[in-house]
Amino acid sequence: MKILISSCLLGCNCRYDGNTQKQNELHKLIKNNYVIPFCPEQAGGLSTPRKPCELLNGKVINNIGEDMTNMLLKGANETLKICKLYNIEHAILKSKSPSCGYGLIYDGTFSKTLIEGNGITAKLLSNNGIKIFSELNYTDLLIK
Ligand code: SF4
Q1: Ligand 1 centroid distance, CA of 144 (Å)
Q2: Which of 141, 63, 52 is nearest to 101 (CA)?
Q3: Which of 4, 5, 6 to mutate to test ligand 1, by most ligand atoms within 8 A of the CB atom?
Q4: How many CB atoms lie within 10 A of CB 130?
Q5: I need a surface site. Which of 23, 100, 111, 125 has the fewest CB within 10 A?
Q6: pTM
Q7: For position 144, what pLDDT does the model report?
Q8: Residue 79 and residue 43: Cα distance in Å, rounded?
Q9: Quick check: 122 and 133 in contact, CB under 8 A?
């Protein structure tokens, strides 16, 4: 199975704070799959480290109030381009991120408050038929 995976879940230091979110169990379970690591925010042109971003009223803002929507949209489109190029039908994306989060994201107040919603990339991929999982439920995909 071909799976696009958020690079930070695989150990890349691409998070806004320059750190990773490496998931050791995920690393073990994906070894028999064809994996494409990808970071939408870096693909959208954001630097690492960078200011944290959250979604608010359909826009992406960072914690000093700058509008980053266009860069995150660019990253989402780049991610979809890769999925189409490689016929990828499944993605494992980092939860809660304004790009990769699926189902729950932060509410735009930078207070760690979660609300229902999808990150920009997760939403675009889902709208194009790609099944989205996260580091919280990837075993539903990998263990049958
Ligand atoms: S955009 Fe996605 S892959 Fe990149 S650091 Fe954020 S959560 Fe990880």
Answers
A1: 27
A2: 52
A3: 6
A4: 19
A5: 111
A6: 0.97
A7: 65
A8: 8
A9: no
**In this structure, which residue's CA is closest to atom 8 in ligand 1?**
8
The region, left, alpha or beta by phi > 0 then psi within -120 to 50, assigned to residue 22 is beta
Would you place residue 6 in the very low, low, confident or very high pLDDT band (cuts 50, 70, 90)?
A: very high
**Taking a C-beta distance cutoff of 8 angstroms, is the pair 39, 71 a contact?**
no
Cis peptide before 98 (omega within 30 of 0): no
The first and second tokens of residue 12, run together, are 């890349």
Element holding 134 (H helix, E strand): strand 131-134
Element (H, E) at 102: strand 102-106
Structure tokens at 34: 């064809």
- Please name the amino acid found at residue 119: G
Q: Looking at the DSSP assignment, which residues form a beta bridge with residue 105?
A: 96, 115
Q: Over the stretch 80-120, which tens digit does the pLDDT of each residue have?
A: 999 999 999 999 999 999 999 999 999 999 999 999 999 99
